[in-house]
Design goal:
The structure is a single chain. The chain is of the alpha+beta class. It contains 5 helices and 4 strands, in the order H-H-H-E-E-E-H-H-E. A 4-stranded antiparallel beta sheet has the order 3-2-1-4, with helices on both faces. A hairpin with a 4-residue loop joins strand 2 and strand 3. The protein is globular and about 35 Å long.
């Protein structure tokens, strides 16, 4: 998948409400839960966001420092809630970095702050 295709797929899903893949979440992201929890602890972020894309399917997982976990649509809704005034802008800033990671065959993982 080209970087442009990855960018378009992420934008369609995160910004325009396309459906997430529960199957992709269960088959890929769920396997990394313990690693991702450990990655959040030493940071000063409010949450950790992880994405995976296969073809046109996207799965997302959001882990907050209080232990709350949100998958797919619930994760998007939580981001929209916490970034009420800046969701679109923040997502547009995150997408290029996520595309770089995904293009290298990695999970797209990034820390986020609510304020």
């Amino acid at each position: 998948m080209t970087q442009q295709a990855l960018n378009n797929t992420l934008a369609l899903t995160l910004l325009h409400g396309a459906t997430f893949s529960a199957t992709l979440f269960d088959s890929v992201l769920a396997a990394y839960r313990d690693e991702l929890r450990a990655a959040l602890e030493p940071d000063e972020d409010d949450a950790l966001l992880c994405l995976v894309v296969e073809g046109r399917e996207v799965a997302i997982w959001l882990l907050e420092t209080d232990g709350s976990e949100h998958a797919n649509e619930a994760a998007r809704q939580r981001l929209q809630q916490m970034w009420a005034e800046s969701y679109s802008g923040n997502v547009r800033e995150l997408i290029p970095g996520f595309v770089e990671l995904l293009d290298q065959g990695m999970l797209a993982v990034g820390g986020v702050k609510w304020s």
